Amino acid sequence: MSGTQIRKVAVLGAGLMGHGIAQVCAQTAGYEVSLLDVKQELVDRGVAMIKDSLSKFVSKGTIDKPKADEVMRRIRPTTDLETALEGAQLVIEAASENPKLKVDLYHKVSELMSPKSILASNTSSISITLLASATKNPENVVGMHFFNPPQLMPLIEIIRGAKTSDATVDSIKAAAMQMGKETVLCKKDSPGFIVNRVLMPALNEAAFLVSEGVADPEDIDKAITLGLGWPMGPLKLLDYVGIDTALSISDVMMQGFDDNKYRASPNLREMVRAGLLGRKSGKGFYEWPSPSTTKAKASP
Ligand code: CAA
Fold this sequence. Notes:
Blueprint: E1 8-12, H1 18-27, E2 32-36, H2 40-59, H3 65-74, E3 75-78, H4 81-85, E4 90-93, H5 99-112, E5 118-121, H6 128-132, E6 141-145, E7 155-159, H7 166-178, E8 182-186, H8 195-211, H9 217-228, H10 234-241, H11 243-257, H12 266-273, E9 286-287, E10 297-298
Parallel strand pairs: 1-2, 1-4, 2-3, 4-5, 5-6, 7-8
Antiparallel strand pairs: 6-7, 9-10
Helix pairs in contact: 1-2, 8-10, 8-11, 11-12
């Protein structure tokens, strides 16, 4: 397999996905990692989530304490974009799911990064071709979509933009393998790619069931975990990935396909307006004691 030899990765965004991606890069692949966010408190929160996850792996014996310390040493937190990008052969963007914000970021990153480096987006639904069009080297831009929690979920979707080169796709396949992940290739840059095209309508439908008063959240989740064998019910999963993220994905799919079947349930928009974003804000359909937990309790 040809392509770029990766030693250092810059992860842009230290949120629910970014912190986990940085950890996988440092822990499984052994890469040097810089972890960027726009404010020190966001970087600190990302680092705290990594420490929390590593302590879970240590407590169940998956890794030992010296290995966890080594992983932490490989991760350099920063709020400076130029510092983050320095020496990185692979840049993984895990910023908020907002097309305009991402396009602005791609302009800036393209000015500062090495023209030979790869710029991979962890976007859940936004067009890779659109993001690539904001850069000087669209052949080096690709979708690299991880799943939450990146530390545990074994899949990466690779998405080819209109101008993505074969060498870029090969490099991302090799990097994913180094991270211990399986890959699938999305040959066309289609809104929602593969997984979210299937998942989001189901999650959205569960939100409609709540807004129509058909059943309580706990019963909807119980029905789907016990009836369909999902590890988490759809409303808990909405909270887990972030109501704002799920709404953005639905909106991108609605606009991309111009088809009402992707119209977001109105309660999701109301929840975002009210700051009820799920796990990351402490409350959504459920109450969440911390952003790094999987344990939620029913909202009173
Ligand atoms: N790091 C390390 N370990 C972790 C962890 C983390 N971040 N989160 C959980 N764990 C560990 C726990 O310590 C626990 O370990 P033990 O079994 O040894 O006790 C184990 O994982 C299981 O965790 P829990 O018992 O707390 O909870 P669970 O049994 O429900 O498993 C889960 C958690 C793996 C997240 C499981 O619920 C699951 O697979 N849920 C579905 C996740 C999913 O669908 N993700 C995709 C979302 S879609 C997406 O991400 C794409 C998008 O674009 C929106």
